[in-house]
Design a protein that fits this description.
Blueprint lengths: L4 E6 L2 H17 L1 E6 L10 H6 L7 E2 L7 H19 L3 E5 L8 H6 L4 E6 L9 H12 L2 E4 L2 H9 L14 H13 L3 H4 L8 E4 L3 H4 L2 H18 L3 E4 L2 H9 L8 E4 L4 H10 L2 E4 L3 H9 L3 E3 L8 H4 L3 E3 L4 H16 L15 H12 L2 H6 L6
Parallel strand pairs: 1-2, 1-4, 2-3, 4-5, 5-6, 7-8, 7-10, 8-9, 10-11, 11-12
Helix pairs in contact: 1-16, 7-12, 10-15
């Protein structure tokens, strides 16, 4: 172990999953401080993933819960600042575009090198709240680690220096390979009395869908049409906020709908692998579809992962019910005809965790010399 102190700050389910192997490697090779902002404070959106992925408990668990966006972001900044000032890390690692990633603002003001995984993603749609966070975090970070060449080009186009950008590849293939035996051993299909390839899996949670009444109603109208046509169960992984909106809008629940609390990673991936088709508005489905060959639809009007569409792995449907139903038909017919699509190269990397550790160890002492200047005597 080196005397380098690295702090990882995370706060949501996708961050925990994507960083799981990186966290283990940082624990192995450096003095590693793990900070959880607790941005998602439900067990199903949080602690279950630490347990399943065999991750140690965080060194710090913050309490950033707030009823407003400004309150939550303010809590993240003030509470991470306290921890950073106490621990004085040599580098900080963040991932993605969540409010927890905005902790980079504190690190920047304190002149601590910031390494940002999942940099450069752009959907060019400001209706998506994460798009604002992406630009802030990318332009604040000292070293950006995009997954793909698409993302790297976005950063270059925005004027970021080439010597601050290193393509790491997506960490998902490594995470899935590490945990595939446990995924395959999941008994979730038996628990829900489901038959292989005779059910749909749905996950809708993004703000632009859940908080937009027309979009949410359109999606459920589409699901009703799918249920009527295929007569298969539709398993809907229902986040607490989504469930509240469904209840508030009095959306009709079809007899084939099964609204289920969010699944753990192993159960959810098993459900994806064995489903007739997946409909989701998540970012992860782009990668899962390519890595595991899952027939999938992205129920959004914009996407930050164009490489998945370059290879044809997923269909971007928007929220129009007729388009969604037609896309389900096409995806399934092509699957039955054994039409295959290539997986983007950057989704196939199996050593992302080791690459990230090398970049952090190698550059943590270089960045301050290049970026900051000693005060005048």
């Amino acid at each position: 172990m080196t005397n380098l102190k690295v702090m990882t700050i995370l706060g949501t389910r996708p961050e925990i999953i994507r960083l799981s192997e990186v966290i283990k490697k940082l624990d192995k090779y450096v003095d590693h401080i793990l900070v959880h902002t607790n941005q998602n404070y439900d067990y199903e959106l949080n602690q279950i993933f630490f347990e399943e992925l065999n991750l140690r408990n965080p060194d710090y668990v913050l309490n950033v819960k707030s009823s407003s966006i400004g309150g939550q972001i303010g809590n993240i900044l003030s509470q991470t600042e306290e921890v950073v000032l106490k621990e004085k890390p040599d580098a900080i690692l963040i991932l993605g575009d969540t409010n927890s990633a905005l902790s980079c603002i504190v690190a920047k003001r304190l002149k601590i090198p910031i390494f940002h995984m999942e940099a450069g993603n752009r959907c060019f749609d400001d209706r998506v709240p994460e798009e604002i966070n992406r630009r802030i975090v990318d332009h604040t970070a000292d070293i950006n680690l995009p997954y793909t060449e698409h993302a790297r080009r976005n950063l270059l186009r925005e004027g970021l220096s080439p010597d601050s950008i290193y393509v790491s590849g997506s960490p998902m293939a490594e995470v899935l390979e590490t945990n595939m035996e446990k995924i395959e051993n999941s008994s979730i299909l038996d628990k829900l009395a489901l038959e292989k390839e005779k059910y749909f899996l749905v996950s809708i949670h993004r703000e632009e869908n859940v908080d937009n009444t027309d979009n949410l109603k359109n999606i459920f109208n589409a699901l009703e049409s799918i249920a009527d046509k295929y007569d298969y169960p539709i398993i809907i992984s229902t986040h607490p906020r989504t469930r509240k909106r469904i209840d508030d809008l009095k959306i009709k629940i079809h007899d084939q709908f099964i609204l289920h609390k969010p699944f753990g990673m192993f159960d959810f991936v098993k459900l994806q692998k064995k489903s007739f088709c997946v409909l989701s508005d998540s970012g992860t489905i782009h990668e899962d579809a390519g890595i595991m060959g899952i027939p999938s639809l992205v129920v959004r009007e914009s996407s930050e992962r164009p490489e998945a569409y370059d290879t044809g792995n997923v269909i971007l449907t928007g929220t129009d019910p007729k388009t969604i139903l037609m896309s389900v038909d096409i995806v399934r017919r092509q699957s039955e005809e054994n039409i295959k699509f290539s997986n983007p190269y950057d989704y196939q990397e199996l050593n992302v965790s080791d690459k990230v550790v090398r970049l952090i160890v190698g550059m943590s002492k270089i960045v301050p010399k290049k970026k900051y200047y000693l005060p005048l005597e």
